[in-house]
Amino acid sequence: NAGVTQTPKFQVLKTGQSMTLQCAQDMNHEYMSWYRQDPGMGLRLIHYSVGAGITDQGEVPNGYNVSRSTTEDFPLRLLSAAPSQTSVYFCASSYLGQQNTEAFFGQGTRLTVV
Amino acid sequence: AQSVTQPDIHITVSEGASLELRCNYSYGATPYLFWYVQSPGQGLQLLLKYFSGDTLVQGIKGFEAEFKRSQSSFNLRKPSVHWSDAAEYFCAARSGGYQKVTFGTGTKLQVIP
Predict the structure, then answer these.
(1) What is the pLDDT along chain A (114 residues), one digit of tens a residue?
(2) With an 8 Å Cβ cutoff, is B51 touching chain A?
């Protein structure tokens, strides 16, 4: 099993450009989420999904869009990148409805907006 | 509001010394609790988790954590630190009925010879 796979690992964008961060999992997890990690702030939830066709906002959703057309994939879109979106982004997945389960994380995407 | 607090931003220990990383939570009911480790440039790896039962939880790499309800704490410990333990450690929590996880701000561990 590959687990949670994120692409790309590194990306540099110019202000105003758009891009999509990809996230795929092969564990048939219903729940998927995106976090951003900034120094001294831990991980903050951007968006999450409890299944195909269902998404919701997390703690810091502004500037990001998501969709969930399949169970496996949960892409994160930046429509118009801003320097404040420079961060490390992590995708995570877990089972839904099972109490004793934890989140599995991808390796992260380091994004720099100049 | 639900929160997880890691009061120590940086900790430096000598190799072979014992380690304790602090974590406090604020939730309406006892949450599920986790410790993750992040090595430089890597993703998060689960060290251990607590759901119920025995309050002393054993994890990977020789780590353990103790849940103390009276103190709302879930501190991570290791009896003898190795240089390879240098990393950032995150405490996390979630409510039983939900999948959303709240993370602490992390503690960066430095290990000196």
Answers:
(1) 679 999 999 999 999 999 999 999 999 999 999 999 998 888 999 999 999 999 999 999 999 999 999 999 999 999 999 999 999 999 999 887 666 678 899 999 999 999
(2) yes
**Which one of A47, A55, A105 makes the best mutation probe of the B interface by having the most chain B beta carbons within 10 Å?**
A105
Strands A10-13 and A109-113 turn out to be parallel
| CB-closest option in A44, A99, A104 to B96 | A99
Enter the DSSP assignment of B5.
E
| 3-class DSSP assignment, residue A69 | coil
- Considering only CA atoms, which of B41, B47, B98 is closest in space to residue B74? B47
Task: Give the C-alpha separation, B88 to B74, whole Å.
Answer: 16
Report the alpha-carbon distance of residue A104 to residue A42 in Å, rounded.
16
At residue A98, the pLDDT reads: 63
Contact in structure between B71 and B88 (CB atoms under 8 Å): no
Q: Whole-number mean pLDDT of chain A? A: 93
Residues in contact with B68: Cβ distance below 8 Å, sequence separation at least 6, in sequence order: B55, B74, B75
Q: With contacts defined as CB-CB under 8 Å, which chain A residues touch B49? A: 100, 102
Cα B72 to Cα B23, B25, B78: the distances in Å are 8, 6, 20
Tokens, residue B69: 């309800």
- Residues A23, A76 contacting (CB under 8 angstroms): yes
Distance separating the N- and C-terminal Cα atoms of chain A: 36
- Diameter of chain B measured on Cα atoms: 44
Token duo for residue A73: 């994939």
